[in-house]
Amino acid sequence: MQILVLQGPNLNMLGQREPTIYGSTTLADIHNAMSEKATSAGIELSFIQSNHEGMLVDTLHAHYGQIQGIIINPGALTHYGLSLRDGLALMDVPIIEVHLSNVYAREAFRHHSVVAAIAQGQISGLGWQGYLYALDWFIQRKSA
Fold first, then answer.
1. Does 99 participate in catalysis according to the annotation?
2. DSSP secondary-structure letter at 90?
3. Catalytic residue among 22, 63, 80, 104
4. All domains of the chain, ordered by start, with CATH?
């Protein structure tokens, strides 16, 4: 099973960016923890982070027909990234949307996700461990 892990704008700055909201764990730390868990479950992960919506869409197109799932934190694109949303919809694989902070306890503009309607599920507010919970869902799916 191959899973694409997409990270949107500013997530490359985790560990430095607003640690009171996003914590001190870096994106590399998250990807390392995910890789360890995935390897032991026989899952292959591909990691892509970009601050550019078009790059994320191009990545989806390049992986079309080659993956069995997507874990995505769209960052700010969550709220307005319609080309990203459409790119995700064309993939026809399960999508789990992850957010480090509880977006529903923050500013009103963060309460709406253009991705949520096409995602299998959403994990919000559980910190970096939310990525591991998303991966757990795919591991359970693989075992079933």
1. yes
2. T
3. 22
4. 2-7+9-143 (3.40.50.9100)
CA 70 – CA 59 distance, rounded (Å)? 12
- The C-alpha atoms of residue 53 and residue 59 are separated, in whole angstroms, by 10
Q: pLDDT, tens digit, for every residue of 2-50? A: 999 999 999 999 999 888 878 889 999 999 999 999 999 999 999 999 9
Q: List the structure tokens of 80.
A: 């307005």
Please list, in sequence order, all residues whose beta carbon lies within 8 angstroms of the beta carbon of residue 121, skipping any fewer than 6 positions away: 96, 97, 134, 137
Q: Is 64 a catalytic residue?
A: no
**Identified catalytic residue from 52, 80, 99, 104:** 99
With vertex at residue 77, the alpha carbon angle to CA 104 and CA 102, rounded to the nearest 5 degrees, is 20
Q: Could you report the per-residue pLDDT of 47-105, keeping only the tens digit for each?
A: 999 999 999 999 999 999 999 999 999 999 999 999 999 999 999 999 999 999 888 77
Q: Is 0.70 topped by the overall pTM?
A: yes
